[in-house]
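Hey, resending since the last one bounced:
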Amino acid sequence: MFTPAAPLAIQAAQRQQLEVLVRAGTTPQRLARRCQVILLASHGVANHAIAHQTGLSRPTVLATRAAFVRGGLEALGHRPRRQRTGRVLTPAVEQQILDATLKTRPATGTHWSVRTLAKQLGLSRMMVQRVWQRHAIQPHRVEKFKLSTDPHFEERVRDIVGLYLDPPERALVLCVDEKSQIQALDRTAPLLPLRPGCPERQTHDYRRYGTTTLFAAFNILTGKVIGTCQTRHRGREFVKFLQQLEREVPPDLEIHLIVDNYSTHKSATVKRWLKPKARQRFHFHFTPTSSSWLNQVERWFGLITERMIRRGTFRSVAELERAIYQWLATWNEQPQPFAWTATADVILEKVRRCKELVGTPH
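The structure tokens again:
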């Protein structure tokens, strides 16, 4: 229980003024309630009872009594001003935050957080947050890159980007690759389904029933995909996939295949299969080393992985392959080609700037 406060001493003239203000219809509600607090306090009403009657909080009742004691009736009408104790965000302070973020590291970590930098500089965390948002700075994020050392990098980039932006007539351009080691996994406990406020949950451990390899050819104009699953990804399996392409592509069309430098695509088995004159319509275009981002089928592999494979549960390889073929058929009902807009010059300029930053001009 709170200790009862003594009745507030007020003069007769003050009481009369307070009563007039409480009764007047033109008195602001905020002022009228404070006047009512003082009148009740003068009659010895407990602070918690005053708070209950006026609808104010007990701290507000205490603050109102204290203001009246200090300044009388005039103090009731003044709004208390917020005392700013922190620093104001000036251009100098903003530059200080940027310099600390971009040019220094904390002694106990690899990057700054809002709170650690605010503590280090003696600022509020919201001030640091505003500066980071204004300049799109995200110290918690890191992106990875890999520069190709292929001596024919520029030549191959121009070749492949040329196919994307200006495909040849009476020809089909297909981005080809294989997604190997797709695992048929089943969780050791049933999935807990999605519900409001709680995501779908699955156990960390799993049972593994085997793997399959998905060979796919992505049509850059229509977005349709020719695909097949095979047990391995050697040269002979790749030849089987090429035979499938040979059957499905009309014989009057040239076939331009964009592939990476994996040994399977250059094996002796593949070279022997390509020798007959009837197969001279197959043209291989190799991406530069460490440049899988140039092959559009890799983006399609990302879609099927994200939307079906990663969170799927499969109790056998056959069940996994059925799911892949079903997803492939659904995709081909409404295929979506990717819009490639970057020219070779733009790509090469970005790579040149990146090499300058890391100090590898070649």
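Residues 16 and 349 are 83 Å apart (CA to CA).

Sorry for the duplicate.
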